[in-house]
């Protein structure tokens, strides 16, 4: 990916605003039994998807691939959609978000302005 691509830069910022867990926090979470269900309703391997988020959190902006860009778009949209919906905010909802790196109980977990 081009290091100076403004769209990638924008998406990188949105992704990091949506994912408020560190790579290590997410890695530990994914290893727990509590994270065993599917996060993205459209399918996909949760452990592989979560691990991809962990790997992406460990990367520098200049090292992102087209696959990373797609993941950043999916995760950002997923987190924003979940936070925007008026719904019961229970443990299942929290686990669903945490599987992609967003802990809604953290102080910086409010809905994104984007």
Automatic annotation (TrEMBL):
Superkingdom field: Bacteria
InterPro entries: DUF3140 (IPR021487)
Transmembrane domains' residue ranges: none
Pfam families xref list: DUF3140 (PF11338)
Region (Disordered): 82-114
Composition-biased stretches (Basic and acidic residues): 82-106
Name of this protein: DUF3140 domain-containing protein
């Amino acid at each position: 990916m081009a290091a100076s691509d403004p769209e990638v830069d924008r998406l990188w910022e949105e992704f990091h605003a949506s994912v408020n867990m560190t790579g290590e926090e997410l890695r530990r979470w994914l290893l727990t039994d509590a994270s065993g269900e599917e996060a993205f309703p459209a399918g996909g391997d949760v452990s592989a998807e979560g691990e991809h988020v962990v790997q992406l959190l460990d990367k520098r902006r200049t090292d992102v691939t087209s696959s990373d860009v797609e993941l950043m778009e999916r995760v950002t949209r997923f987190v924003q959609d979940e936070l925007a919906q008026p719904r019961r905010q229970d443990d299942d909802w929290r686990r669903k978000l945490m599987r992609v790196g967003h802990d809604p109980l953290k102080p910086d977990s409010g809905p994104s302005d984007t």
